[in-house]
């Protein structure tokens, strides 16, 4: 066998192995569970969470030690 023939035979085996791998991955991806939809958040929940975060920020700013030359934002 020539060197080119040996190379082509090895290449065909590698290509076949890669093809089988792709098919197995595709089958596994299709067999997995469908992604669950993200929970919906109402505007009232968003507003409530924002209010809580803002109050917490104000409280932290109030409790922050006073540094020389640095005022509130």
Write the layout of secondary structure elements.
Layout: H1 3-31, H2 43-63
Describe the structure.
There is one protein chain. With 73 residues, this protein is mainly α. The protein has a domain at 1-29. The chain contains two helices and no strands.
Can I get a quick summary?
The protein is an all-alpha fold and 73 residues long. It contains two helices and no strands. The longest helix is centred in the first third of the chain and has 29 residues, at 3-31.
What can be said about the biggest beta sheet? none
Output the structural class.
Answer: mainly alpha
β-strand number: 0
Determine the number of helices (DSSP H or I, runs of at least 4 residues). 2
Low-confidence spans: pLDDT under 50, at least 5 residues? Answer: none
Structural descriptors:
73 residues, mainly alpha
């Amino acid at each position: 066998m020539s060197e080119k023939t040996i190379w082509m035979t090895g290449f065909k085996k590698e290509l076949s192995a890669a093809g089988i791998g792709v098919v197995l991955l595709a089958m596994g991806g299709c067999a997995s569970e469908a992604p669950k939809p993200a929970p919906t958040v109402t505007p009232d929940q968003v507003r409530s969470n924002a209010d809580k975060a803002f109050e917490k920020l104000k409280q932290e700013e109030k409790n922050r030690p006073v540094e020389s030359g640095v005022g509130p934002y």
